[in-house]
Write a structure and sequence with these properties.
single chain; alpha+beta; Herpes Virus-1; SH3 type barrels; 2 domains; two-stranded antiparallel ribbon; 6 helices; 10 strands
Length: 266
């Protein structure tokens, strides 16, 4: 069984191990679909039956009031409970995430950071913005994080969701100015097209040969400075830890490390 997601639609559950005994509680989610209300003030997920999902026009927006289940057809009603992904795996199911379009404005949920806005853009060295698992399902996205400065990383699809313009300033105990600048930039880009958003992705346009040349020039200048100062002053031999000037590719980066100082590409 293969389920799907389109636009803000979430593909739900498919069997990943037929030999495992699936619980009745988790089996109720099979052959059903989660759909997201597109009101910016809501954005709640609603569970639709296969019959209701078949009647939905995928080219038009969907809202809570369109739900045939009267218990969950108002934006004021909370979402239904849904089992943790680990619980589904234990029962022989898996969640399938569909592919978001290139240039999408997204939020990334990191473990020790607030939800951070970014743009789906091509990796400058791989030339692609998404990777797939062995089953052909979306596995990771390449994201350029907004803010001053920008940074980029490959992030598991599990942690990537749509950006909401109603997002409130989260609790950020570190790099508060960086986070605030990221939210401001995302707000300005919200109404722009995917193509316009890609234009501001400076890091994805970075050419590797130029980057290598920049590192070489900086290294050469440092050597010249070192030679010029050697004759004037007796050098002091101290052990110094050199910080990397540039980092090019972040494959399989842990979400908690994606926004760390070491993973920032300027």
């Amino acid at each position: 069984m293969h389920l799907w997601k389109k636009k803000n639609w979430m593909v739900i559950v498919e069997y990943c191990n037929a030999a495992m005994d699936s619980s009745a509680e988790n089996s109720m989610y099979v052959n059903k679909l989660w759909v997201q209300c597109e009101y910016e003030s809501c954005l709640k997920w609603r569970l639709l039956s296969s019959e209701d999902a078949a009647r939905v026009d995928h080219n038009k927006p969907w809202y809570c009031f369109m739900n045939t289940d009267s218990r969950y057809n108002k934006c004021s009603v909370a979402e239904e409970d849904f089992p943790e992904e680990s619980q589904l795996h234990q029962s022989g199911f898996k969640i399938v995430y569909s592919q978001l379009p290139l240039g999408s404005l997204v939020l990334v949920k990191l473990q020790s950071w607030p939800s951070w806005p970014g743009i789906l853009c091509p990796d400058p060295f791989k030339g692609k913005y998404v990777t797939y698992d062995l089953d052909g399902n979306v596995e990771q996205y390449h994201i350029e994080f907004l803010g001053d400065p920008h940074s980029r990383s490959w992030i598991n699809a599990t942690f990537v969701g749509h950006y909401s313009i109603t997002l409130k300033l989260g609790t950020c105990t570190k790099k508060k100015k960086w986070y605030k600048s990221a939210l401001q930039e995302a707000y300005l880009l919200y109404g722009h097209s995917h193509e316009r958003r890609l234009e501001v992705c400076r890091l994805s346009k970075q050419d590797k040969s130029k980057a290598d040349g920049k590192v070489a020039v900086v290294a050469k200048k440092r050597m010249q400075v070192s030679r010029n100062t050697t004759g004037k002053k007796k050098p002091k031999f101290r052990r110094r830890i050199r910080k990397p000037i540039l980092k090019y590719s972040f494959e399989n980066v842990c979400p908690d490390d994606a926004m760390s100082k070491e993973n920032v590409v300027i």
